[in-house]
Specification:
It is a single chain. The protein is 26% helix and 45% strand. With 229 residues, the chain is of the alpha+beta class. It has one domain (2-225): Clam (outer membrane lipoprotein receptor (LolB), chain A). Strands 5-4-3-2-1-10-9-8-7-6 form a 10-stranded antiparallel beta sheet. A hairpin with a 3-residue loop joins β2 (51-62) and β3. α1 runs antiparallel to α2 (110-121). The longest helix is centred in the first third of the chain and has 32 residues, at 2-33.
Length: 229
Amino acid sequence: MYLAIVPIVLCALAQDANKAETLFQAAEKKIVAADSVRLMSTGVLELGAGIKLDYKVNTWTSKGNKAHIEDIASSGGQDFVSGRISDGATWWEKPVKPQLATRPKIPANFNATLLGLSARCGVSLGFAWTEANGFQGKDLLAEVKASDFSLGEKDTVGPRDKRREAQIVNYKITFGKQTYTGKVWLDTETNLPLKRIVTANDKSGQRWTENCEVFLNEKIDATKFARPK
């Protein structure tokens, strides 16, 4: 009897893994393919040893590799605000730092990378990896791999007056020699991410817990992507 049940269980697990991967990849493709995207995220980065950093990262993108990112990190009652803008050709700080003699040129796959990593790893981590590695001619979407998918339970996410039903997908992120455990809550109606937890599988103890709102194909004012002064 036991031996007869094993193939059934393995088949069910494989079906769940396939469904989880399909949902995850569909969410990423939906975000990357949009003409414009607005990502509004708030979260907590746990750095280990009891150190926590609250953050808010907001991203706007439009066709032509145009992007605007606002990053606010809070620690010890102090806010650290930074901004980045792509006008489609060059990566600018906001406000501009005159002492920087050169600024990175925007590669052809910039927005696909920024949005793909945001969908795959979370808005904060996706932006951090794009900024650190996205101007070196690398295909980061090929290097930052998602695998080992499985379906979790269904849950509800959001404040009481805006509760959304979500399907949890568990997965693994691999970037170089480092691996991370990922858990994302996908809206069962839109299949867009609502919440995510990413934990580094090393001694650092780093963990990102992020809530996110995703808005696709809105009209975004062109001045959002203008070169800052």
